[in-house]
Design brief:
The protein has 305 residues and is an alpha/beta fold. The chain has a domain at 53-59 and 101-303: Glucose Oxidase, domain 1 (3-Layer(bba) Sandwich). Helices cover 14% and strands 20% of the residues. It is built from seven helices and 17 strands. The chain has helices at residues 44-47, 154-157, 171-177, 202-206, 217-225, 251-259, 271-276, and strands at residues 53-55, 74-79, 94-98, 106-108, 118-119, 123-124, 129-130, 133-134, 145-153, 168-169, 188-192, 214-215, 230-232, 263-266, 280-285, 295-297, 301-303. A nine-stranded mixed sheet has the order 1-17-15-9-11-13-14-4-16. A hairpin with a 2-residue loop joins strand 7 (129-130) and strand 8. It is globular, with a radius of gyration of 22 Å. The N and C termini lie far apart (46 Å).
Length: 305
């Protein structure tokens, strides 16, 4: 039986869920008379040459805004230059980093939230969790994502740079923001609220007093109905947080993670992306493969068309 201390990545299926068939080469007289194949597509790095790349991660530093429900980010220089000097005069510095898996820009694993003791797929939490983490549904089971993402800029729909604190995003808001776009299953949906423009306002960004904008439960069902691989937004919690409520209940997490198996990306820095007006991008999303963890930091990259 496989243990938590084993590397399971080699056992994960391809993102399509289907093995790639081995390549074959035709030989014999018939092959000599076949129509030449069309010229191959350009190499991926050639197709992307000159494209604008936007970093969608918030910088991680001590004291940054984060949920009070998770261990804070801390970093200390463990070794300084000069603490040890090699015979040739060389020296090195390094650090100790302590952080929760849901601090800064991060991806929620399907093991992050349960409902009535059950995780996604109706699996009881007990057999899967231990002090070492989760034996399945951890963030290490998230397949790296490289593909299309659509941006539903709800703030732009309302003609504002930032949605009001405590604003509940509805299915109607998402319909308006998605007008003219095709939302395909297995892709990523990002919601623009403009909230990352308030990153420097520590207490306001967290929203304990005034709340934060986010999808209500009906909007979460709207998103799930499109079967995305993941959804993402700018706030600490991918939720509508009313004033003074904090993270009392998390219905969008229940709908997406538990009921539909949709991963959530939180605390994204969408400001530079929203400024471009882009509505679809190539997204690179690859959280740290922390075995058994319920979430992990990520540095999403947007490649513009």
């Amino acid at each position: 039986m496989q243990g938590l201390d084993q590397d399971r990545h080699a056992l994960l299926p391809a993102p399509s869920g289907r093995p790639t068939p081995p390549a074959t080469t035709a030989t014999g007289p018939a092959a000599q008379h076949r129509t030449p194949a069309a010229s191959p597509d350009p190499a991926p790095w050639q197709a992307l040459r000159g494209r604008q790349v936007i970093d969608l991660a918030q910088p991680m530093r001590r004291g940054m805004p984060q949920s009070p429900n998770h261990p804070p980010f801390r970093m200390a220089l463990e070794r300084r230059h000069g603490d040890m000097t090699r015979p040739d005069g060389g020296s090195a510095a390094n650090e100790l980093i302590v952080t929760g898996g849901h601090v800064g820009t991060h991806v929620d694993a399907l093991s992050h939230v349960s409902q009535d003791g059950l995780l996604h797929g109706g699996r009881p939490t007990g057999p899967l969790q231990s002090h070492l983490g989760f034996s399945d549904l951890g963030i290490d089971t998230f397949p790296p994502y490289l593909g299309r993402a659509v941006i539903l800029d709800v703030a732009r729909v309302h003609g504002v740079d930032v949605l009001p604190a405590g604003y509940a995003i509805t299915p109607e808001d998402l319909d308006r923001a998605a007008a003219g776009l095709t939302l395909a299953p297995g892709e990523v949906i990002l919601i623009g609220t403009g909230w990352s423009r308030r990153w420097s306002e520590h207490d306001a960004f967290i929203g304990l007093r005034d709340g934060t904008p986010g999808p209500d439960e009906a909007a979460a069902h709207w998103l799930a109905a499109h079967s995305p691989a993941a959804v993402g937004a700018e706030t600490i919690a991918f939720e509508h947080i009313p004033a003074g409520r904090g993270h009392a209940v998390l219905p969008a997490h229940r709908v997406l993670l538990v009921e539909h198996g949709v991963h959530i990306v939180e605390t994204m820095n969408l400001d530079p992306l929203l400024t471009t007006g882009a509505r679809e991008i190539l997204l690179v999303l690859n959280p740290l493969p922390l075995v058994g963890a319920t979430g992990a930091p990520v540095r999403p990259l947007a490649v513009l068309a």
